[in-house]
Amino acid sequence: MKFPKMPSRRSSAQSELDSGVKRSTSAPPAMKECFPECIQLADGRRAERILCPRRSWDRTIQFYYNGHLGIPVGDIFRGKQVQDSQETVGIAGLSTVSLQWPGYDSPEMCDVGRVTVSSKTIQDLAVELCTALYSFYNRASKITPSVEDVPWTLFSQISLKDIVLGSIHFDAGVGVPDFYVLRM
After folding, report:
1. pTM score
2. Angle, CA of 124, 127 and 130, to the nearest 5°
3. pLDDT at position 179
């Protein structure tokens, strides 16, 4: 039995020539970037990235203040306009956000760690994420974290004012924020 011959696939260079439209074969910049283990804030303080599983993401939104990656959570709670850009988020519909923090993966934290966001701007998204973190933080005060994650213990080792929101990564409708912790 003979199968019909499939049309040959055109190279991206040939396709660009034919259509007059430039196409990039490389991943978008946010996908290529390796997120730093430490960041320096606009005021000179340094923050260390919390440990969480890394994976490939469909989309990443980074939060900047005064040209520096990272927004202190305390500034969000004080009502400051902290996001440099007021561009829209561009997330179609509602998205679920999963807050992950080392040592707080117990079943009683699962409900608090999952929230739904419907932000229009990046500033609004930052506010919603920090509000969700506040609920997560309050719930964490009633739980003993796993022993191996003692340096990341909320309340006794880390307070809300020590946490910095760096970015959020989306994959299949779920967002996972990337938090940093100020280390003095």
Report:
1. 0.68
2. 150
3. 92
